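To close the section, here is one more complete example, presented without commentary so you can practise reading it yourself. The ligand is 6-O-phosphono-beta-D-fructofuranose.
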Amino acid sequence: MFQLTRSVTWQALKGLQEKTAADRIRDYFTADPERFDKMSLRVGGLFLDYSKQPVSDEVLAKLIELANHSALVQRRAQMFSGDIINVTENRPVLHTALRNLGEGPLMVDGQDVMPEIQRTREQIRSFSEAVRSGEWKGHSGSRITDVVNIGIGGSDLGPNMACRALLKHRHSGLNFHFVSNVDGAHIQKVLSRLDPATTLFIVSTKTFSTQETLLNAHTARRWFLEQAGPDADVGAHFIAASTNRQAAMAFGIREENVFEFWAWVGGRYSMWSSIGLPIALSIGFDGFMELLEGAYEMDQHFLSAPFAENMPVLMALIGIWHINFQGAETQAIVPYDQALHQLPAFLQQLDMESNGKSVDIFGNPVDYKTGPIVWGQTGSNGQHAFFQLLHQGTRYVPIDFIASLKPEPGVEDHHFALLTNMMAQANAFMEGSQTGSRLDPYSCPGNRPSSVLLLDELTPKNLGALIALYEHKVFVQGVIWNINSFDQWGVQLGKRIAGEISERIDAQSQDFDASTQGLLALVREHFTSDGDPSGDAAPEDGKANEGKMEERRKDKGKAGKRDGKG
Ligand code: F6P
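Output:
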């Protein structure tokens, strides 16, 4: 059986790690004046400079050999053509079909999926136009002013990140709110600022069975009926993006307002589907299509460019060099762009839920490190928080700097300062400063790795390309590590046990470990089986509270039973 770590290329890379351990990145520049030109590339509106990475020409060539010897060509073709590559959930992985702008069919299970994708796109177009134009009316005849997306994980992070990133393209008459946390403080805070007559709720959940989302959706519906009156039309204010049409309709959503998507769209890859509806509402359908276009162009690049000039492949290989040969545990994402402040959180889920795996696709434990811990925040804020450790600490942390070149009118001086700070940091990480002896507390060792990704401008199209770039980077790493990047059984385990614990709130259950039982006893003192603080469940308005408790019971039942596939 093939063992990655025993392969000739892997062993050669280990040898190169030892050989280059004492190299200084800056010496590579001295030795090769062409290095920047050689180790940078442009795809559409994106420019990647990876010349400040600790890779010699020889290392890069070996990394490309690693990709050549992997199943990448075959698995990439399988993904794009709808083969079952998510083997543990027995389904294809087709987020690329959602942004496919090419002609021709895409057959899955003998059926062309493109017509239904087109139909849903058309549904998104007509609905978003109706809301944006004011043609869509709430129950009292008012136009919508506020859109609340209720969802979590992939049903929150993608549209949330994109709406914030593209805020300057937002419809001026619409405000957007994202509620994800099951902590009631989150939804209460959002609802406290809203008028039910002018609010539209999107219940975004692939499965329509995620506890957090269902609790928040039921709280929102209860609030709506309390405020607008018990007979107010829920259907005029609640719509859903879900694969579970029946459950959405049972919630009170009109059939025509369930925006469909499909089991072959993974939660963290779903912003291109109906889950992206808030994006279309915010920036308009044409803007949403530009986002898809950018992703589609990156898909075409990923499919056709030779590995040595393939942006996602190169980023993946450099990541593998860091993780498997240089001992990096984490990957920092630092956007020098306030509009991209949600990007690190989005990429964290994308990467960590996909490649946080320790068995290969055959179920064998792997003997190498897989996905890194992804973290970060915007610069220049990060400079005044965690950069100190990156400059002088004991850890080796590769950084992706991300920025857009075009300044905002009126604040050009800010943008110039932003970009010069980013360039200064990338330079300082590489050069360091040797002010005296090596023990001098003022000296920074340097030789710390970073890449710089520049967007010509933060447009929907370039954002689409940027996200597709990272999706493919994660995919390539998963293929080389021979893991399934598309399941998330660890998350499902947590979901299942949360359901079981909530069902045991009354019982003196021996089913859990002593610590969980002890904690449960403490929690039990404050809650009844309805999840209400004890004593407070006494109905002031008997009917309303009965309904409320019944809804919660139903939610808990569903939470316990769900299969929870994301
Ligand atoms: O976090 C795990 C996960 O399964 C994600 O993949 C998914 O995006 C999220 O839960 C929410 O699931 P759903 O969209 O079904 O509510």
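Once you have examined the tokens, check your reading against these statements. The pocket of 6-O-phosphono-beta-D-fructofuranose is lined by residues 152-155, 205-207, 210, 213, 267-268, 488, 491, 566 (CB under 6 Å). The first strand starts at residue 40 and ends at 43.
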